[in-house]
Design brief:
This protein is an alpha+beta fold. It has one domain (21-282): Sandwich (Jelly Rolls), CATH 2.60.120. It has helices at 10-16, 54-60, 226-236, 245-252, 272-277, 285-293, 298-311, and strands at 35-37, 62-66, 76-82, 88-94, 125-132, 148-152, 158-162, 186-190, 198-207, 215-223, 269-270.
Length: 344
């Protein structure tokens, strides 16, 4: 029997395949920019607000939405403010909230809060950087950058220096100088800001939600420290006992789960009142956040949601990994995804 060997020209292989990697990135969403610059309501510069109570906190919150950049280029939002001579806090909260599911057959009191899985498809992630505008390498509204500069040492080597002022940013486990992670608030205090000198806030998009690729967020720029902001929530919302700080952080900004833009409602929204009056908040998200950041068990919320959306009269089901509607948007994950002993 005669055997045959087929050889494909190497040049054909190179020209016949697409190595761009574009399929790895979310496509651009119409009318939702991947890079934009945020201005204050009446001026170019964001004015650090004095926040002493919950009402002032809500009034100081600015809301917006960011989409994918569609490429390997950094995406995100920038904003500028002038130093006050004192400390300035920058606090951001990307949608929605995230937790690790407890799968122990005999969970402790803390673990029993989280026996349902989270819906990871509605969560996004933003990384916060703040620094002097003179060191910012991006072009606001056109191209995102960072605060790295380089100098040549005595041996002729280029040495990169990170000049971000967010040395006090807090990670998910309470570690300093770290990013918080998926859907978790991120903040930093810039101490002793130089009066009259411009600072740039860079909100770099790390991940957009998988369900609709529209990442809503809330941002506060206030005088004083971020600890002052969290203390207001602890004091006035009555959430002092039995609630860890990183759960309190989720209570600082409410309503960052923003519905897809409709008509000319392109945002940004200045203050919680502006956002809520425009009916731009996803239904159910406020109740979800209130449960998450308080001492209530997530199990009760998730069971109620499942009964309403999955088994109740006229149930529409949950849309976890596809673009949701008001009827199909769920904040808890699929309980059948819970791992079982002996399985992977």
């Amino acid at each position: 029997m005669r055997s045959y060997k087929f050889w494909i020209p190497f040049a054909f292989v190179l020209t016949g395949c697409d190595y761009s990697g574009d399929w790895l990135f979310a496509g651009v969403v119409e009318d939702v920019p991947g890079v934009w610059h945020l201005e204050d309501q009446d001026t170019y510069l964001i004015t650090p607000r004095v926040v002493t109570n919950l009402q002032e906190l809500e009034e100081a919150t600015i809301y917006g939405e960011i989409g994918p950049n569609g490429s390997t280029e950094l995406g995100g939002v920038t904003a500028d403010f002038e130093g006050t001579g004192g400390s300035v806090c920058v606090f951001i909260d990307p949608e929605t909230a995230w937790w690790s599911q407890a799968v122990s057959p005999a969970p402790d009191d803390f673990g029993s809060f989280w026996s349902y899985p989270d819906n990871v498809f509605d969560d996004g992630d933003i990384d916060l950087y703040v620094g002097l505008s003179v060191y910012y390498t991006g072009s606001p509204g056109e191209r995102m950058g960072d605060f790295f500069v380089s100098y040549t040492d005595g041996l002729g080597r280029e040495v990169p220096l990170q000049l971000s002022e967010c040395s006090s940013s807090i990670g998910a486990q309470g570690q300093t100088n770290a990013h918080a992670g998926r859907a978790m608030p991120e903040y930093c205090t810039i101490p002793n800001t130089q009066p009259g000198i411009s600072y740039t806030i860079a909100l770099q998009t790390f991940a957009t939600p998988l369900d609709d690729d529209r990442l809503g967020f809330g941002m506060i720029v206030s005088e004083g420290t971020c600890d002052d902001i969290i203390s207001i929530v602890r004091r006035e919302a009555g959430l002092g006992e039995g609630v860890t700080d990183n759960r309190l952080e989720e209570c600082v900004i409410q309503g960052e789960s923003i519905r897809p833009k409709r008509g000319n409602e392109l945002g940004p929204w200045y203050g919680y009142g502006d956002l809520s009056s425009s009916e731009a908040i996803w239904g159910g998200s406020l109740e979800f956040e209130e449960h998450f950041c308080s001492t209530k068990r997530m199990t009760s919320f998730c069971k109620s949601e499942a009964e309403t959306k999955l088994t109740g009269e006229g149930a529409m089901g949950c849309s976890w990994n596809a673009q949701p509607t008001d009827e199909t948007r769920c904040y808890c994950g699929d309980i059948t995804d819970t791992p079982e002993g002996g399985s992977f």
